[in-house]
Amino acid sequence: MATPRQVTVVTGGGRGIGAAVAVRLARAGHRVGIGYERARESAERTADAVRAEGGEALTVRLDTSVEEQVDALFDQVTEAFGPLTGLVNNAGISGPLGRFLDVSAEEWDRIFDVNVRGSFLVTRRIAPGMAERGFGRIVHLSSVSAERGGGVFGGVAYSAAKAALLGFSRALARELGPSGVTVNSVAPGLIDTDITAGRLDPERKAAMVADIPMGRTGTVTDVADVIAFLARPESEYLTGVTYDINGGSHIH
């Protein structure tokens, strides 16, 4: 069976890691649907960067926890580019790095709504078509916090939500594998983005970098390159795995 033209949705694609992923996928020949919630101008700049790579991009406003917006994203990207072959569930929020005993139920629910329910809704909308056509690449953005138990950004709720995505990915990989759809995760460590800038005081950041064997923080390109690798048609024998992108800070 010939590999279909790659059409990939990147949620949270307007800034940070998501923007880098969109551009990197375009360089690999993907048509890219960029979901964004608030950063419209940034999303349009990302789309311009995709076009500068010779690619095609469409921006769509998206709160992943709202089912009607998920449907609208699917319809618009499909109409513009054709059947979807890839999905990068990047949209997510963290939360204050505080004690579990101080977390409100509302805060817990919001973090799970965006990180977990949102990924569920988008995947549920896109995956059936992939399975029917016999090809698909799904990548979830988890975090080193899910594996080491917090300690970077966000607190217990964030770590729990990102850990839920690992279980979701692995179980879904078993179910969709026979249909030609792979499902994998990446777990970034300390990554420099415009979103995380300023959230760590210099002394704490220096101490964290000192504990990274590679001696530096990660870049959005470090993460985007791994995701682009997992999204290749040639990566068909990789499924249910988690790629740690942390410079060796969490070796297990």
UniProtKB/TrEMBL annotation:
NCBIfam families: PRK12826.1-2 (NF009466)
Keywords: Oxidoreductase
Swiss-Prot/TrEMBL GO biological process terms: monocarboxylic acid metabolic process
Transmembrane segments: none
Residue ranges occupied by any Ketoreductase domain in the UniProt entry: 6-189
The keyword Transit peptide appears for this protein: no
Protein name as catalogued: SDR family oxidoreductase
The UniProt record lists the keyword Oxidoreductase: yes
Molecular-function GO term, any one: oxidoreductase activity
Domain of life assignment: Bacteria
Family: Belongs to the short-chain dehydrogenases/reductases (SDR) family.
Residue ranges of coiled coil: none
Pfam family, one: adh_short_C2
